């Protein structure tokens, strides 16, 4: 690992100033960034520690939603009474990720900032990776791509985003509060991540020296009926092959609100608006869920080794929706 400066920031503005001045990176839980630095994937000249900025609260908002400080740990967030009661799908998603030790260190902001675990990205011995070394090629496209994207990939990169939390935030229509040299701005979660296109080195739409200070959730119609299903190679400490966050509301015997997001299949949580719209007014039956699953997976573009994820995705969508509504 290369040597680097380490500074503690005490104000949000001060943190931004120091990252602008040093060209460094923000440091919170460090659970992904330090791994990348040890492996030589990241080599910042400075780390600006944002753990003393007082961004560790989960508070109810006047609108009936919740504001999550970006420094709240994954453990604290998943177990917070406001999250467990109003947004159980978020709690489930967070608890399905990593390990207790990692969740005790990792933060809400860092969860969204974590980078892909594509093996060619994580290991500098591989020469080809456009995300790590722009212009070098993509070794995964014709190589090991069992865990890679079905949707949203490009010729330059076929990696997925690894966050479970982001998938739940997608169906909850979260807003990401960010702060940077031009002050504060709010980014809808649907616009926070970006597809790789020909710039796969950019995972999100943050501008230079911006960082996440909070995540706001509006009131949710899905507190009663939601589910996070994560399918993976082993039951613990593994990233999703496919995951599904499903939220449904039923009134007078028909579905009145629906949101479904997939993880493990795209560079961002993947929602298909037409499939969600097609659920409205339908009775909550397995046949209706199957039709929705077909629509969601219709645009899948499998690679050489991940074709199995198409059927897996369909079954997972049906299972998540059925479990959310306790329909068999
Ligand atoms: Fe790199 Fe993306 Fe290709 Fe993986 S899929 S090797 S991260 S460019």
Automatic annotation (TrEMBL):
Keywords in alphabetical order: Oxidoreductase
SMART domains: CO_deh_flav_C
InterPro entries, sorted: CO_DH_flav_C, CO_DH_flav_C_dom_sf, Diverse_Substr_Oxidored, FAD-bd_PCMH, FAD-bd_PCMH-like_sf, FAD-bd_PCMH_sub1, FAD-bd_PCMH_sub2, Mopterin_DH_FAD-bd
Domain of life: Bacteria
Entry's Gene Ontology molecular function annotations: FAD binding; oxidoreductase activity
Keyword Oxidoreductase (UniProt): yes
Pfam families documented for this protein: CO_deh_flav_C (PF03450), FAD_binding_5 (PF00941)
Database matches in PANTHER family: OXIDOREDUCTASE (PTHR42659:SF1), XANTHINE DEHYDROGENASE SUBUNIT C-RELATED (PTHR42659)
Alphabetized Gene3D superfamilies for the sequence: 3.30.465.10, CO dehydrogenase flavoprotein, C-terminal domain (3.30.390.50), Uridine Diphospho-n-acetylenolpyruvylglucosamine Reductase, domain 2 (3.30.43.10)
Name of the molecule in the record: Xanthine dehydrogenase family protein subunit M
Residue ranges constituting the FAD-binding PCMH-type domain according to the UniProt record: 1-222
